[in-house]
Amino acid sequence: MIDNTVRKLALGNMSVAFIAFILACFMGEYQVLERSGLFESLDSPTVYFASVSTHGVLMAYVLTTFFIMGFGYFTASTALNKPIWNPGLAWAGFWTSLIGTVLAAIPLLTGKASVLYTFYPPIQAHHLFYLGATLLVVGSWVWCAIMIVMFLQWKQENPGKTVPLAMFATTFNAMLWLWTSAGVALESVFLILPWSFGLTDTIDVGLARTLFAWTLHPIVYFWLIPAYTAFYVFVPKQAGSYLFSDEAARVAFIVLVVFSLPIGFHHLYMDPEQAKGWKLLHMVGTFIVSTPTLLTGFTVIAALEIAGRLKGGKGLFGWIGTLPWTNPMVLATILSLLMLIFGGFGGIINASYAMNAMIHNTAWVPGHFHLIFAGTTVIMYFAIAYYIWPILTKKPLFSKKLTLLQLWTWFIGMSILTTPWHVLGLLGQPRRISTVVYNNLLTLSWQPYELAMIFGGLVLLSSACLFLYILFKTQFNASTEVYEHAVEYAEALHPSESVPEYLNDIKLWNKVIAVLMAISFGYPILQFFLMNTYDSSAWGY
Amino acid sequence: MHIDPLEKKWGQIVLVICAFFVGIILFEALFHSVNAPSNVETIDSTKLHLSKEFAEDKLGVSRDDKGNIVVRMVAGRYSFFPKEIEVPAETKLTFRWVSMDVLHGVHIPMTNMSTMVVPGFVAEVETSFPTPGDYPVLCNEYCGLGHDQMWSRIKVVEKEKWLAQHSASKGGNKND
User: Fold this and answer.
1) Are residue B98 and residue B52 in the same domain, yes or no?
2) Is residue B3 within 8 angstroms of chain A, CB to CB?
3) Do B83 and B107 lie in a common domain?
4) Per residue in A239-254, pLDDT tens?
5) Smallest CA–CA separation between A417 and chain B, in Å?
6) pLDDT tens for residues B52-75?
7) Which of B7, B122, B140 lies at the smallest CB-CB distance from A272?
C-alpha cells in the first residue's frame, strides 16, 4: 500500500540523497580537472582535499544512507502492504541524519575537515565533522529499527507465511547496517570524539584502523543490497519473465550479509598492526562473500534469458537481442552487470592478499570502487528512482528516450573514467594526490590517461544533470495525466508457499554473525589492550 | 523448498572457483612465505630520535656481518628519510619503515615494496628488485595538505657494483 506518509518519507529521503549526489558530481569533475595539472589557476591542494573529502562523504554516506532509507520505507510499505510503523520516529531519524549532514558539511566546506571520507587519525578534523557524521549514522539506526519492527510484526500477523523477498532483503540490510556501523561507532565514541573534543591528547592509531576496517567492508554491501534487491524483485517482471528461484535469492542475501562482516582485514593487508594469520582468515571470508554475487549473476541472467526466449529469441545468444532493451530497469541491469563483471575481476585482484601489494592505495583502488559503486550500484539507484518516482508522485515518467540516454551515458562515462584510472594504478600512480610533482620519467606515462578521465567525468556530469532533470520534470509536470500503476514485484518460477524458518528469519543469522565476529575481530581488537602499544604524538595535525 | 538442478550445478562450480583461488593464496603463503607485511612490532613514534634503531645516524642502508641488508627508513611529513638511497639489484632486502607523525603509506611503483606506515608500529617488508634503475618512493596515503610533495628516491644498481662500493660498510647512513 502507498499512503501519503510513505510518499513523503520516500520522496523526502531520496530527494536529499540525489541533491547530495549532484553536488558531489560537480566536485568530481572539478577534481579530475585539478588533478590533471593542465589548468594552473585551478591548482590548490587546500581546495582539492576539501573537495575530495566532501565528495566522498556526500557520495558514500549521504547519497547511500538517504537513498536506502527512502527505498526501504517504500519497500516495507508496498511489499508487506502495511503502513509505516511509527512515522513520527521515522521523521525523527530523517531530521537527525539531515542535521548531522549539515553539521558535518560546515567544517568540510570551510576546509576544516580535509581528512577524506575515511578520516584516518591522527590527522584531525574539526569536532563538528565527527559529531555530524555520528548523527547521520544514529539517524539511520532509527530506520533500521523501523524495518526490523515491521518485519517482525508482519511475521506475527502472518504465521507460517513466507516474508516477501523484497522485505526479507531490506530487513537483512537493516540488520547488516546495525552490525556494520557498530565498528565505526566504537571508534567514534571511544577514540575519535573524546580526542577531537580535547578530552584526550593522543589516539591509538592501530586500534582505530582495526575498528574502522570492521565497518569498511560490509558498508559497501549495505550500499549494494538495494541494487541486488532490484535485480531480484523488479527486473524479472520488467523483462517479462520470472524470478528464477526465490530460495536461491534468500540464500544469496544471507551469505552476503553474514560473510561481508568478518572480512574487513582485506583493507589492512598492507598494515603492520595485524598478523598474517588473521589476514589470511579474512582473505578466505573475502572469497566466500564473492559466492552470492556469482549466484546473483546466474539467477538474474537466467531470468533475463527466460524473458528473451519468451519473446522469441533463439540459439545460444539470440535471446539477448530480444530483451526489452528500452525498458529502463532492464537496460540498467544489463549495464550494471557488465560493470560488475569488470569490477569483480578487479576485486579478485584486490582480495588476493599478495597481489594486492602491487595496487594497494594506487589509482587502481578508486578506479575499482567507482566502477563497482558509482557504476554497478548507482545505476541501479537510477533505475529504482525511475521506477518508483511515477508511483510516488502519480505522474508519468517525463521522457523514456531521455531516460535511456541517461543510463547509456552513465555507463559510457563510467567506462571512460575508470579504465584509465585502473591503468594509472598499474603504472604506479598513488590515489589521493592533488597533483603530480614527482620528478621522474614514469610520470610522463600518466598524462594521456588523466586527459581521458577528464572527458569521462564530463560525460558523467552531464548524465547526472540529466538524471536530476528527468526526476524534476516528472515530479513537477504540469499535465493532469495521472499515473495509476502500482508497484509490481516479480513472481518466482516456482512459487514457494513455505520456506524453512532459517530462510525466513533473522534470529539465527544474528547469532551466526556474533560468533563469526567474535572469532575474526575478538583477538585482533583485544591485542591492543594486551600488548604495549604507543599512541600517536600529542601535538596534533 | 526448490533449488533448480542448474542452480545447484552452478553453485558447485562457484565453490570450486573460490576454493581454487583460496588454495593458491594459502599455498603460496604457507609454503613460499608470500605474505603481506604483518610483523606486529610496536615502537614509540614520538621518540624515534632517541631509539637505538631509528636515530638519525642509523637510518638508510646497512649490511651486517652475514651480509644481510637492512634498509631503515623514517616517514614524516613530507618525505621519506634518508631522501636518497642506493640498493643492490637481485638481492634480498629487508625494509623497516616507521612514521614519526601521522599515517603514511609507501609504494615503489612497478615493484611490490608496499606497506602502510602506521604510527606506533614498525612495518617490515622483505623484497628484492630485479631491474636496476632510478625509482621514486611515493607516499600513497593522504597525510596532510603537503601529501603531493611526499616522495623520495631509490637507486637500484647492479649487485656487483654495489658490493664493490659498499664492501666495508656496516650500518650507518650510506647516502651517496
Assistant:
1) yes
2) yes
3) yes
4) 999 999 899 999 999 9
5) 21
6) 999 999 999 999 888 899 999 999
7) B122
Residue at A208: amino acid letter: A
B62-97 in b/e burial notation, b at 16+ Cβ within 10 A? bbeeeeebbbbbbbbbbbbbbeebbbbbebebebbb
Is residue A229 within 8 Å of A296, Cβ to Cβ?
A: no
- CATH number attached to the domain at A4-530: 1.20.210.10
Tell me if residue A172 is catalytic.
no
Write down the pLDDT at residue B169: 52
Share of chain B above pLDDT 90, in %: 84
Residue A45 to chain B, least CA–CA distance (Å): 6
Q: Which of residues 59-88 of B touch A (CB under 8 A)?
A: 77
Q: Which of A267, A370, A381, A382 is catalytic?
A: A370
| Per-residue pLDDT reduced to its tens digit, B74-133 | 999 999 999 999 999 999 999 999 999 999 999 999 999 999 999 999 999 999 999 999
| Structural domain count of chain B | 2
Ordered DSSP codes for A190-223: IIIHHHHTTS-S---HHHHHHHHHHHHTHHHHHH
Confidence check: pLDDT of B174 > 50: no
Q: Residue A268 phi/psi, 5° resolution? A: -110, 15
Range of the domain at B49: 41-165
B10 occurs within a structural domain: yes
Nearest-CB residue to A46 (from B7, B22, B145)? B145
Enumerate the domain spans of chain A.
4-530
The reply to whether B120 falls in a domain is: yes
Find all residues with CB under 8 Å of A246, minimum gap 6, and list them: A162, A165, A492, A494, A495, A496, A499, B2
**Any domain includes B171:** no
Inside any domain, residue B150: yes
User: Given A119, A209, A431, A489, which residue is catalytic?
Assistant: A431
Residue B23 has pLDDT above 90, yes or no: yes
Residue A205 has pLDDT above 50, yes or no: yes
- Using the beta-carbon criterion (under 8 Å), do B120 and A531 form an inter-chain contact? no
By Cβ distance, the residue of A273, A287, A358 closest to B21 is: A287
In chain B, residues with a C-beta closer than 8 Å to the C-beta of A299 are 7
Give yes or no: residues B99 and B151 share one domain: yes
The CATH number covering residue B154 comes to 2.60.40.420
Measured CA to CA, the distance from residue B153 to residue A303 in angstroms comes to 55
At residue A481, does pLDDT exceed 90? Answer: no
Single out the residue of A499, A284, A152, A384 nearest to residue B20, CA to CA. A284
Lowest mean pLDDT among A120-129, A488-497, B66-75, B164-173: B164-173
What is the count of residue pairs from A and B with beta carbons less than 8 Å apart?
Answer: 219
Query: How many CA atoms, within 13 angstroms, populate the side-chain half-sphere of residue B80?
Result: 28
For chain A, give the mean pLDDT.
95
Residue A431 annotated in active site: yes
Residues B74 and B88 in one domain: yes
Residue A525 has pLDDT above 80, yes or no: yes
User: What is the average pLDDT across A299-315?
Assistant: 94
Q: Hey, of A35, A204, A273, which one would you mutate to test binding to chain B, going by the most B CBs within 10 A of its CB?
A: A273
Statement to judge: residues B25 and B85 lie in one domain: no
Per-residue pLDDT band for A343 (boundaries 50, 70, 90) equals very high
What pLDDT is recorded for position B176?
A: 44
Q: Among A287, A352, A534, whose Cβ lies nearest the Cβ of B120?
A: A534
Q: With H, G, I as helix, E, B as strand and everything else as coil, classify residue A397.
A: coil
